[in-house]
Please model this.
Amino acid sequence: MGGGACLPLFMTFGPADRITAVRAVLVVALVLFLGQPAGSVIAWSVVGIALVAVLLDGADGWVARRTGTASAFGMRFDMETDAALILALAVLVWRHGKAGPWIVGAGLLRYVFVGAGWVWPWMARPLTPTLRARVICVVQIAALIVAVAPIVPPPASAIVAACGLAALSYSFLVDTLWLVSRRRTT
Model:
Protein backbone atom coordinates (compact mmCIF):
# COMPACT_ATOMS: atom_id res chain seq x y z
CA MET A 1 0.00 0.00 0.00
CA GLY A 2 1.05 3.59 -0.49
CA GLY A 3 2.25 6.01 2.15
CA GLY A 4 -1.32 7.22 2.71
CA ALA A 5 -2.27 3.93 4.39
CA CYS A 6 -1.28 5.32 7.81
CA LEU A 7 -3.17 8.57 7.33
CA PRO A 8 -6.59 7.31 8.46
CA LEU A 9 -5.10 6.07 11.77
CA PHE A 10 -3.43 9.42 12.40
CA MET A 11 -6.65 11.21 11.52
CA THR A 12 -8.44 9.26 14.28
CA PHE A 13 -6.05 10.82 16.76
CA GLY A 14 -7.70 13.59 18.69
CA PRO A 15 -5.91 16.89 19.21
CA ALA A 16 -4.60 15.72 22.61
CA ASP A 17 -3.24 12.51 21.04
CA ARG A 18 -1.31 14.64 18.58
CA ILE A 19 0.23 16.57 21.48
CA THR A 20 1.17 13.27 23.12
CA ALA A 21 2.70 12.13 19.82
CA VAL A 22 4.92 15.23 19.87
CA ARG A 23 5.90 14.31 23.43
CA ALA A 24 6.79 10.80 22.21
CA VAL A 25 9.06 12.33 19.56
CA LEU A 26 10.73 14.41 22.29
CA VAL A 27 11.34 11.21 24.27
CA VAL A 28 13.00 9.71 21.20
CA ALA A 29 15.19 12.83 21.00
CA LEU A 30 16.21 12.24 24.63
CA VAL A 31 17.03 8.61 23.86
CA LEU A 32 19.37 9.82 21.11
CA PHE A 33 21.41 11.64 23.78
CA LEU A 34 22.18 8.30 25.45
CA GLY A 35 24.99 7.71 22.96
CA GLN A 36 26.52 11.14 23.51
CA PRO A 37 29.29 11.81 26.00
CA ALA A 38 28.08 13.46 29.20
CA GLY A 39 28.62 17.18 29.25
CA SER A 40 27.05 20.48 30.15
CA VAL A 41 25.69 21.22 26.66
CA ILE A 42 24.08 17.79 26.41
CA ALA A 43 22.68 18.04 29.94
CA TRP A 44 21.14 21.47 29.27
CA SER A 45 19.68 20.12 26.04
CA VAL A 46 18.14 17.25 28.01
CA VAL A 47 16.70 19.71 30.53
CA GLY A 48 15.22 21.87 27.77
CA ILE A 49 13.65 19.01 25.84
CA ALA A 50 12.31 17.40 29.01
CA LEU A 51 10.77 20.69 30.16
CA VAL A 52 8.96 21.05 26.84
CA ALA A 53 7.73 17.46 27.20
CA VAL A 54 6.43 18.20 30.72
CA LEU A 55 4.65 21.35 29.59
CA LEU A 56 3.02 19.44 26.74
CA ASP A 57 2.05 16.72 29.22
CA GLY A 58 0.07 19.33 31.10
CA ALA A 59 -1.54 20.48 27.87
CA ASP A 60 -2.67 17.15 26.39
CA GLY A 61 -5.12 16.24 29.16
CA TRP A 62 -6.49 19.76 29.26
CA VAL A 63 -7.01 19.73 25.48
CA ALA A 64 -8.69 16.31 25.61
CA ARG A 65 -11.16 17.50 28.26
CA ARG A 66 -11.86 20.85 26.58
CA THR A 67 -12.45 19.30 23.14
CA GLY A 68 -14.43 16.32 24.47
CA THR A 69 -11.94 13.92 22.87
CA ALA A 70 -10.66 12.16 25.99
CA SER A 71 -10.37 8.43 25.37
CA ALA A 72 -9.01 5.27 26.93
CA PHE A 73 -6.45 5.14 24.11
CA GLY A 74 -5.37 8.72 24.83
CA MET A 75 -4.97 8.06 28.55
CA ARG A 76 -2.89 4.94 27.85
CA PHE A 77 -0.81 6.71 25.20
CA ASP A 78 -0.13 9.51 27.68
CA MET A 79 0.78 7.08 30.48
CA GLU A 80 3.15 5.05 28.31
CA THR A 81 4.79 8.23 27.01
CA ASP A 82 5.32 9.34 30.62
CA ALA A 83 6.86 5.94 31.43
CA ALA A 84 9.23 6.16 28.47
CA LEU A 85 10.16 9.74 29.45
CA ILE A 86 10.96 8.63 33.00
CA LEU A 87 13.08 5.73 31.73
CA ALA A 88 15.03 7.93 29.31
CA LEU A 89 15.63 10.60 31.96
CA ALA A 90 16.63 8.04 34.60
CA VAL A 91 19.23 6.51 32.30
CA LEU A 92 20.52 9.98 31.39
CA VAL A 93 20.80 10.94 35.07
CA TRP A 94 22.86 7.80 35.67
CA ARG A 95 25.00 8.22 32.52
CA HIS A 96 25.78 11.81 33.49
CA GLY A 97 27.07 10.62 36.85
CA LYS A 98 24.36 12.44 38.78
CA ALA A 99 23.09 9.29 40.56
CA GLY A 100 24.02 5.63 40.69
CA PRO A 101 22.59 2.91 38.47
CA TRP A 102 19.81 2.44 41.04
CA ILE A 103 17.99 5.44 39.52
CA VAL A 104 17.20 3.36 36.43
CA GLY A 105 14.73 1.59 38.74
CA ALA A 106 12.52 4.67 38.43
CA GLY A 107 12.27 4.03 34.72
CA LEU A 108 11.73 0.30 35.11
CA LEU A 109 8.92 0.41 37.71
CA ARG A 110 6.15 0.76 35.12
CA TYR A 111 7.50 -2.12 33.05
CA VAL A 112 7.89 -4.38 36.12
CA PHE A 113 4.30 -3.51 37.06
CA VAL A 114 3.06 -4.44 33.57
CA GLY A 115 5.14 -7.64 33.65
CA ALA A 116 3.57 -8.55 37.00
CA GLY A 117 0.19 -8.33 35.25
CA TRP A 118 1.32 -11.01 32.80
CA VAL A 119 2.27 -13.31 35.67
CA TRP A 120 -0.67 -12.49 37.95
CA PRO A 121 -3.74 -11.45 35.91
CA TRP A 122 -5.27 -9.65 38.89
CA MET A 123 -2.34 -7.19 38.67
CA ALA A 124 -3.47 -6.23 35.18
CA ARG A 125 -6.84 -4.92 36.35
CA PRO A 126 -7.49 -1.31 35.43
CA LEU A 127 -6.69 1.31 38.01
CA THR A 128 -8.77 4.41 38.54
CA PRO A 129 -6.73 7.49 37.63
CA THR A 130 -5.93 9.43 40.80
CA LEU A 131 -4.58 12.84 41.63
CA ARG A 132 -1.87 11.08 43.69
CA ALA A 133 -0.60 9.17 40.66
CA ARG A 134 -0.63 12.25 38.42
CA VAL A 135 1.15 14.45 40.97
CA ILE A 136 3.78 11.82 41.77
CA CYS A 137 4.45 11.25 38.07
CA VAL A 138 5.14 14.96 37.66
CA VAL A 139 7.26 14.98 40.84
CA GLN A 140 9.33 12.06 39.51
CA ILE A 141 9.88 13.71 36.12
CA ALA A 142 10.73 17.04 37.78
CA ALA A 143 13.19 15.32 40.13
CA LEU A 144 14.96 13.69 37.20
CA ILE A 145 15.13 16.99 35.30
CA VAL A 146 16.58 18.75 38.36
CA ALA A 147 19.03 15.88 38.94
CA VAL A 148 20.41 15.99 35.39
CA ALA A 149 20.76 19.80 35.40
CA PRO A 150 24.41 20.85 35.39
CA ILE A 151 23.86 23.35 38.22
CA VAL A 152 22.91 20.53 40.64
CA PRO A 153 26.10 18.68 41.57
CA PRO A 154 26.34 15.24 43.11
CA PRO A 155 25.50 14.26 45.80
CA ALA A 156 22.61 16.77 45.78
CA SER A 157 21.50 15.40 42.40
CA ALA A 158 21.41 11.86 43.82
CA ILE A 159 19.36 13.03 46.81
CA VAL A 160 16.82 14.72 44.52
CA ALA A 161 16.69 11.62 42.31
CA ALA A 162 16.23 9.37 45.36
CA CYS A 163 13.35 11.50 46.64
CA GLY A 164 11.61 11.22 43.28
CA LEU A 165 12.18 7.46 43.20
CA ALA A 166 10.83 7.13 46.75
CA ALA A 167 7.65 9.00 45.81
CA LEU A 168 7.19 6.90 42.67
CA SER A 169 7.81 3.67 44.59
CA TYR A 170 5.20 4.74 47.14
CA SER A 171 2.66 5.34 44.36
CA PHE A 172 3.30 1.92 42.82
CA LEU A 173 3.06 0.33 46.28
CA VAL A 174 -0.34 1.95 46.89
CA ASP A 175 -1.62 0.73 43.52
CA THR A 176 -0.23 -2.77 44.11
CA LEU A 177 -1.80 -3.02 47.57
CA TRP A 178 -5.13 -1.86 46.13
CA LEU A 179 -4.97 -4.57 43.47
CA VAL A 180 -3.93 -7.20 46.05
CA SER A 181 -6.93 -6.29 48.22
CA ARG A 182 -9.27 -6.86 45.26
CA ARG A 183 -7.67 -9.90 43.67
CA ARG A 184 -10.39 -12.27 44.86
CA THR A 185 -13.36 -10.08 43.89
CA THR A 186 -15.33 -10.50 40.64
The radius of gyration is 18 Å. The mean pLDDT is 92. Helices lie at 7-12, 15-32, 40-67, 72-95, 104-119, 131-148, 156-181. The chain has one domain: 10-181.
